UniProtKB/TrEMBL annotation:
PANTHER family: MITOCHONDRIAL OUTER MEMBRANE PROTEIN SLC25A46, TB1 PROTEIN-RELATED. The keyword Mitochondrion applies. SUPFAM superfamilies: Mitochondrial carrier. This is Mitochondrial outer membrane protein SLC25A46 isoform X3. Solcar repeats lie at residues 229-331. The lineage of its organism: Eukaryota, Metazoa, Chordata, Craniata, Vertebrata. It is a multi-pass membrane protein.
């Protein structure tokens, strides 16, 4: 045995661990930080029933982003980011606590049955209900104009969420929909998003792993490719699942956000001009009325306002995945 071989093996294993951590970190950074300006603009367009420009393409979205950045500074596109992390934390925490104190399964076993799936989806539904008031508070933080916005602390989302439940906090108008009427659209969107993304993720993962397995059998796989196959299929599957579910459910998300924001006295930026502000004065009676009103007053494309931001968001994500793959491949080739 060559004395240097064990050291090389240790070096490769360390590189693999570092690369796995780095790849996961890059993906998380893209999903939660780099994509945030796109999420802010997408939500502002969705709730802006005044808007004449629908921003269906990335070109108009980039232009309006530049205008907001120029008139209000960089904070205009990064507002509410802390609250989105809080909502994720509340969701994970609620799911863990509910599954701990109930027989509802947090994961579905390989030998699943309809009863187990039903119980698992019930757990997800209860989790979305618990997180709902905090999601509503976070939505307000991300769409509220920076021009009239107070410098709220990072825990403002929790304070507002609790206030929404007990009926205290910031005064709201009579048009504010009660939380009970928001349960169905919130749970419907959350559960459908989870089901669609889970199915697509499993299908793509299965296809990619089968492809990798066949190439291994043909002995045409390089050591570098074998190591890439250990990390990237799951990232690609997650990316595709998130993209497909966001695109399919975009109209429902538009309706959901309008219902959550109604009556909260929120002032948003004018997405037609890139400056000035607009009040939200909708008077939807519920989910069905919201759908009918959007269809009649804004047309079917009204459900897709701000869709160009989704295109930019996932283009950035795909680019980061590709760059990460190139860097990882280069590091592996130098070490192998």
């Amino acid at each position: 045995m060559v004395p240097g071989e064990p050291m090389e093996l240790i070096k490769t294993e360390q590189l693999n661990r570092f690369a796995g951590f780095g790849i996961g970190l890059a993906s998380l950074f893209t999903e939660n930080v780099l994509a945030h300006p796109c999420i802010v603009l997408r939500r502002q367009c969705q709730v802006n029933y005044h808007a004449r420009h629908y921003h269906l393409t990335p070109f108009t979205v980039i232009n309006i982003m530049y205008s907001f950045n120029k008139t209000q500074g960089p904070r205009a596109l990064w507002k509410g980011m802390g609250s989105t992390f809080i909502v994720q934390g509340v969701t994970l925490g609620a799911e863990g606590i509910i599954s701990e104190f109930t027989p509802l399964p947090r994961e579905i076993s390989h030998k699943w049955n309809p009863k187990q799936i039903g119980e698992h989806l019930l757990l997800k539904s209860l989790t979305y209900i618990v997180a709902m008031p905090f999601y509503s508070a976070s939505l307000i933080e991300t769409v509220q104009s920076e021009i009239i916005r107070d410098n709220a602390g990072i825990l403002e989302c929790i304070k507002e969420g609790i206030g929404r439940v007990i009926g205290m906090g910031v005064p709201h108008s009579k048009r504010l929909l009660p939380l009970l009427s928001l349960v169905f659209p919130t749970v419907l969107h959350g559960v459908l998003h989870y089901i669609i993304s889970s199915i697509i993720q499993k299908i793509i993962l299965l296809v990619l792993k089968r492809k990798a397995y066949n190439s291994h059998l043909a002995e045409s796989t390089s050591p570098v490719q074998s190591m890439l196959d250990a990390y990237f299929p799951e990232l690609i599957a997650n990316f595709a699942a998130s993209l497909c579910s966001d695109v399919i459910l975009y109209p429902l998300e538009t309706v959901l956000h309008r219902l959550h924001i109604q009556g909260t006295r929120t002032i948003i930026d004018n997405t037609d001009l890139g400056y000035e502000v607009l009040p939200i004065n909708t008077q939807y009676e519920g989910m069905r009325d919201c759908i009918n009103t959007i269809r009649q007053e804004e047309g079917m494309l009204g459900f897709y306002k701000g869709f160009g931001a989704v295109v930019i968001q996932y283009t950035l994500h795909a680019a980061v995945l590709q760059i990460t793959k190139i860097i990882y491949s280069t590091l592996l080739q130098n070490s192998v």
